[in-house]
Amino acid sequence: MIPQEIIRRKRNGETLSSGEIEAFVTLLAKGHLSEGQIGAFAMAVWFKGMTRAETVALTLAMANSGDMLTWEGIDRPIADKHSTGGVGDNVSLMLAPIAAACGLAVPMISGRGLGHTGGTLDKLESIPGYLITPDAALFRKVVKEAGCAIIGQTGALAPADGKLYAVRDVTATVDSVPLITASILSKKLAAGLQTLILDVKTGSGAFLTDADEAKTLASSLVEVANGAGVKTSALLTDMNEPLADAAGNAVEIWNCLDFLSGKKSGTRLEAIVLAFAAEMLVGSGVAASLADGEVSARQALSSGHAMETFARMVAMLGGPVDFVESPARYLKAAPVQKPVLAPESGWLASCDAREAGMAVIDLGGGRRHPSDRIDHRVGFSGLLPLGTQVEKGQPIAFVHAADDAAAERAAAAIIANYKISGDKPKLPPVISGRV
Question: What structural domains and CATH numbers belong to the chain?
Answer without folding.
Answer: 3-49 (1.20.970.10), 79-154+168-327 (3.40.1030.10), 332-421 (3.90.1170.30)
